[in-house]
Records
---
Amino acid sequence: MPDLTVVKDALKNHQIELPSWAFGNSGTRFKVFGQPGVPRNAFEKAEDAAQVHKYTGVAPAMAVHIPWDKVDDYAALAAHAKSLGIRIGTVNSNVFQDDDYKLGSVCNPDPKVREKALAHLLECVDIMDATGSRDLKLWFADGTNYPGQDDIGARQDRMAQALAAVYERLGPGQRLVLEYKLFEPSFYTTDVPDWGTALAHCQALGPKALVVVDTGHHAPGVNIEFIVTMLLRAGKLGGFDFNSRFYADDDLMVGAADPFQLFRIMAEVVRRGALAPSSGVTFMLDQCHNIEPKIPGEIRSVMNVQEAVAKALLIDAEELAAAQQAGDVLGANAVLMDAYNTDVRPLLADLREETGLPRDPYRAYLASGYGEQIITNRVGGTAAGWGA
Ligand code: RM4
Ligand code: MN
């Protein structure tokens, strides 16, 4: 049995980063169902994120998305977050919502468009300087829809050039993290479709370039924990964008579709000592709450991650190694399944109580009245949303 004090300490130190966009209105290309009380700007999003941290104690950072979270004074935003007991985390760039990007951003055949996209990425690094953020997250919608539409290799050269310029601009302690996604919005080629492509670019750049695994960005059946292991072995896992997918890039709550997959991923993370913040792996959520209430949706997601982490920490590593060495196929599998089938909710509730947190963050938040308060207070202005 793993030492319970070690398990509890690991759980206490584990941190989960929240996406600002999860607090704003979002939807599908069919309809955005607006909700009352949603934040109208990045400052109010930080207030909502702070609520999630208040009740869970493990979510002290909020990632921002530029320009969705554009403000006049980023240092003031960081100070506001600090006053609420959280910090501004990863800065996510957006080079996919401008008419100029119809044929791509940094891979666009037109050098003027490439310059514009690069200028935005560099502006994001300026923002990191002001907010004290470590990571710039890059996700590109770049790709083509038809064979022959553009030169596949030339697009890779343009990508490499832009990445190198961003890399050059990074300050000490700053990193770029590159996200891949197999398809959408382009359907014939995507310029960074998989972890191999992302890794190849990051390896060419150097130690401050790492790969992000968004759990929703894979084809059905892909063994994500294998990818995680490969990236950890290479020292190139920058972080996660957690969510659940039933079909494609659904951005549904992490742990909803396949909690067992989440456990298997976390088992590899724990196995390779990458859980602690000092490992440099960011555990971020990348979700949209289209029909469910947003703050409770984030709290539930944080709890789902914690449950997977707790189960992963409960794997008896010694027993597992012994079974593996002995070639005991079923015995090794049983060690894993014993941990997965443990009900860790009482353990997590006890741990929260010990650290002065409510045993059930979800219910405690609902009972707090904050949800009703924001509906009353946030009248007027334009609700923030990603404009689907
Ligand atoms: C992308 C990707 C990015 C996110 C955008 C909104 O599919 O997952 O991480 O910033 O969506
Ligand atoms: Mn993502």
Note: The first strand starts at residue 17 and ends at 19.
---
Amino acid sequence: MKITLISFVFLICAAQTIRSQEAGYLSDKHRPQFHFSPKKFWMNDPNGLIYHNGTYHLFFQHFPEKTVWGPMHWGHATSTDLLKWTEQPIALYPDKLGWIFSGSAVMDFDNTTGFGKNGKPPMIAIFTHHNDSLEKLKGNNHQYQSLAFSNDEGKTWTKYARNPVLKNPGIADFRDPKVMWYDAGKMWIMTLATKDRITFYASADLKNWKKQSEFGQAFGAHGGVWECPDLFQLPYGKGSKWVLLVSINPGGPNGGSVTQYFTGDFDGKTFKPTDTITRWMDYGPDNYAGVTFSNTGSRHILLGWMSNWQYANQVPTTEWRSAMTIPRELSLVNINQKAILVQKPVMEINRLQDPGKAIAVNAGVTELDLNSGLPGPSGLYRLSFDTEASTTVSVTLSNSKNQQVVIGFDPTRKEFFIDRTTSGAKGFSNEFFKRSVAPRISNAPKLRLDLIIDHASVELFADDGTTVMTAIFFPDEVFSKVMLQSPRMKTVTNVQIANLRSPWKAGD
Ligand code: FRU
């Protein structure tokens, strides 16, 4: 290959941009290190999550002019390990049909759309066009579904000339298509949020869609509008079950935006729920619009937006706003004859985990200093321990400014909690500085807590991912102290803590 002077200069500039981006990430006290956040400006929902040829693609709701929500684009980032993301040029810009709202992406291996080129399957994005001018006319027809395709593995995109492919039938909230290939019926299925229910559509070519059925008007939680659904099948016992995720805003058990799920059967036409229970995927205040990657074989990997519409536009970051959750692997377990969704951090995170240390527990104390022996202050930790379901226990993250976040378990109420009441400078929101709770779902006599802490977030995977809570925080100084408290320290065992490395550190 001949490297011209111009391309040489371009390569040097590109390398420098990446280096200065890394330097900025390391010194920004609220910048998550191993959670994706946009370089600059606003981000909300993950979109078009797809794995292809060794690369994970994360598209996202993005307004590349301000740090508040506005005319939506699809931003783009790629990763080979789900943790170190490299931001790419914007994938989809608003056009005359509207802004680009949430949606999904699939590989069209059989070229059902005819968009493939030179024998290579196209990558297809299916998204909602949101027409702001039509919305103002209040005709209930301003959201409709459209396609775009890429013949270079997601780098550049062409919108389909005959968009939209699914017109609005007169429903104001008609959005967030999640499309999958339903092999048993050899057809594409679109799961669409339609105000207070889900509508399923089927298609042979992604261009012509036929309504199959509706689900949910009389099921689940309805404290807010239904958004960002997902439908997938997971192994369960000797067979399998379908899981339907539905985000709702507002109406969460701890206020604001949250994701509920249903388990049941799907036959290509209708979704039949197993029961009428309302299940919450993550009880914390900050996991919204989560959906799974497509084309990952038997792995089901979920990524959520780590914020809440109650305060997303006000959180105190300056150049950028919002991050995604840690990617989580999903499975189902049977607890009391109910199928319960389990989330575990993807095993790729082990690569970022320093050897860490096991903490010797002195049964005679009520407080243990967990991180004083670790190199630090890192503010990035993975920490886990076992105890008994009858033990009161908490972990306190704190700094020298008397700011703290407390994560723990209250056995009298059988509740986990995250308390961020005094987690940082107040004033940006009345909703933020609160204590959130989650019921314990497992009934095992042993209790296990696994915590993943980045500069500005904690994710609690309790009882091996059966009860999950995610919360963000914005301390004025990194939480450099980690203490474990319990009046029954003798029941606390297997205490482990490790620093997590920032993937932006030189040499990674
Ligand atoms: C969910 C959501 C989606 C919509 C997008 C707009 O957070 O409201 O329903 O497509 O955000 O940015």
Note: Residues 44-45, 61, 72, 101-102, 128, 175-176, 227-228, 289 surround beta-D-fructofuranose (CB under 6 Å).
---
Amino acid sequence: MAASMAAAARRLRRAFRRSPLWGGLSRRPFSSEPPPASATAVRDAFLSFFRDRHGHRLVPSTSVRPRGDPSLLFVNAGMNQFKPIFLGTVDPRSEMAGFRRVANSQKCVRAGGRHNDLEDVGRDLSHHTFFEMLGNWAFGGEYFKEEACRMAWELLTQVYGIPEDRLWVSYFGGDPKAGLDPDLESRDIWLSLGVCASHVLSFGPQENFWEMGNTGPCGPCTEIHYDLAGRGGAPQLVELWNLVFIQHNREADGSLQPLPQRHVDTGMGLERLVAVLQGTRSTYDTDLFSPLLDAIQQGCGVSPYLGRVGAADEGRTDMAYRVVADHIRTLSVCIADGVCPGMSGAPLVLRRILRRAVRFSTEVLRAPPGFLGSLVPVVVETLGDAYPELRKHSAQIVNLVSEDEAAFLASLQRGRHIIDQTLRRLGPSDLFPAEVAWSLSLSGNLGLPLDLVELMLEEKGVQLDSAGLARLAQEEAQHRSRQAEPAQERGLQLNVHALGELQRRGVPPTDDSPKYSYSLRPSGGYEFGTCEAQVLQLYTEDGTAVASVGKGQRCGLLLDKTNFYAEQGGQASDRGYLVRVGQEDVLFPVPRAQVCGGFILHEAVAPEGLKVGDQVQLHVDEAWRLGCMEKHTATHLLNWALRQTLGPGTEQQGSHLNPERLRFDVATQAPLTPEQLRAVEGTVQEAVGQDEAVYMEEVALARTAHIPGLRFLDEVYPDPVRVVSVGVPVAEALDLASQAALQTSVELCCGTHLLRTGAVGDLVIVGERQLSRGTTRLLAVTGEQAQQAREVGQALAQEVGAAAERLSRGSQDVVEAQRLSKDMGRLTDAVDTAVMPQWQRRELQATLKVLQRRANTAIRKLETGQAAQKTQELLRRHSEGPLIVDTVSTESLSVLVKVVRQLCERAPRTSVLLLSPQPLGHVLCACQVAQGTTPAFTAEAWALAVCSHMGGKAWGSQVVAQGTGTTADLEAALRTARAYALNQL
Ligand code: ATP
Ligand code: MG
């Protein structure tokens, strides 16, 4: 009966998920009730219900940026901040350790990683990329299923006044494969609360068993659903609230163990709750969204939002309304929390979201330029009271959104042209070429998300060459990993013959001065110029000079001038693209430029023919270049800080940087101490904090001689040479009397630098190793990555602190002590590999070493004590004889082995086998055979006989062995053990 009901309900739920319409509800469902409450009132009512009626402490929402948890892209549930409590790693001295019952409203983003609802947004009426999760928690068994269900029911039906017959609940129906019983306790609680039996449904582990990850705390959950149809007919269910009961731990071997502490963890989507209470058809018709929909209508002058979905939504206008409204909320909240659109990780996800919003707003809603930014104040108005950081950063949000929108619009326009142009050349059944799609993409040049390129093609009815695209993606990944360890790969080169020929013809070296023409806008962004140039010579892959190249050919281009930075001085080459003047719609991707004898060779794949004499326009990949500039200025600051910390004689031995990270080799007598590493970071941070101007000027090389403090590398410098000086104009720094170069960073350098140091943001040294005696290689990250590294470090330090505190409290329980020791091992692995400050890594490694030793000693002591006690008991029970086969209660296999050993020491002529039953039918086994028994009687074979009888495994030596198995009939296992031994003795 339950099964068929479950199947019926599953069908219903599936049906609901497929039909995203929230039924045809009237706007006012509960006619006798007062007018629908505002979202603010609904949120407040939730919080005050748990605070005032049920004594919960209110905890503020954390930022959507996960603090020190690299496993998450964004905070995606209310429980994220309480993870240390669930994992048992919370510092006993921290405020959080005292949490018993808490409630909050958490900002969540589900747009990447394990929970990704991005694809659903706009298509259905109940999923958002940003939403608010209302939740209540009871930690350490403060309350459990009964109270949690009762509170939820009371809130929904009495406080919010939702009619009981519109609510359905589900509970965990058990999982025979995992040996888990149905959660009948939850079922009975719902029935006792008066939920009608036909509204109580059971589901399998897929739906109703919650797990945090592959290992860790987990447990059954019970969900409350709302029936949108509500006329007694087929229900249309939408999930409102999920109540999770954490009571098991998923071990590394996949088994489930009961947790020493049980917890309640619940989450309810505010938007869905408000929709129910406001009697609307979807979350978008609530006061959380309607001001945005109104603003979109006004700003774009489109027909009003009608809430249509799927095929009914002709022209996808309503979908566009939803996408734009959803995405601008997410953008605003994320930027306010410090996640800005960027190049990798969460920032890249945000960049995609922004671009998706721009596309829907401009292409479908015909929004005017700058429109997205104009929606930010509406978001601030609806959410600013609950989350004041939105108000605080609203100007910055508007700026960032508008700048990125403008950049994207320009790319989008060009992308559309290119697609049209390419299509004209394609036959009716041709695939769209992967190279063109790639050059349009985020990884390529125009920065259009690939899924968007695909969508644009889908609209034109062409198919993309996906296999070709996958190949390009793989090549890009390989290229990137090579960039991380540069210098092995050599791209196209000019050979001696080519160089000789150029010199013979009197071709002047490439004028690459335009690489320095960029400026800082008042808003803080950089503006890069383009550069027009003429093709002087073309080269094939093998270096042969040619007058023209054909379609699809990889080639080298020599131009009269360029704004590309060619790899030199440890700065990675620029990348970007060029177009032929007069044919701006065909992009020639340029992955790299190299300098050979003063000539700069651009590597390109020609999508069309190209010939000597052609005029081209060059565009550098701005995000890439800016990343290099940040890292290069950071490298100078690091060099300076190292001298400040280690002494003026400290010599740089080399460096390399790309937008991801920087590497710096420095001559040292010994590895840097944690204090020195910290001091270096501190000095850099200070210079960054002062946002000093960076001056660059070309001067005669002779002028740089004899300047105290000026850094020369073992390099040949051009004359004139470029000087880069931080905080002091170059002329002043080169004044023999000024001593400026002793007080700030002044270097001879041809790299491209920031114009002010502030944009470095932060610098963290995340790695340090000895290359050879006397040389230390440092790895560092900057900006957002540096901040993340600090957060990871802080989180790990807290975990180590908490572990230390747990250890110092001592435990009389072997299993608890073993868990602590395992945690220590896990923490050591995490600390060894995390991207975190190196000084902190070293400190934590030292601490953990000591802690691990102490934990192991404590375990040994506890085990020995426990074993001695159990040995005594067994000796009392068994008189002297050749054999002891018995059961012992312990949760630890190593205690069991110790008991066996101690028994054999006390009774050397006795062979011993002990079994220890565990929950769920698991059995531990240990044995030892007495000296002088027949050679055929070995401990390993004995354990194997018994454990394979229990369907398990065993291992060990001739004398001692251990194993595990599973059986419901322990007596039979003991009989097997006795019979085997008697047979051998
Ligand atoms: P669904 O099956 O609807 O995607 P879920 O099982 O992913 O929901 P949970 O992870 O249990 O949801 O989250 C708890 C609550 O948060 C849900 O009951 C729902 O009310 C709300 N919720 C989850 N995802 C979203 C989303 N993308 N947008 C709005 N609310 C959401
Ligand atoms: Mg979901």
Note: The CA atoms of residues 354 and 404 lie 8 Å apart.
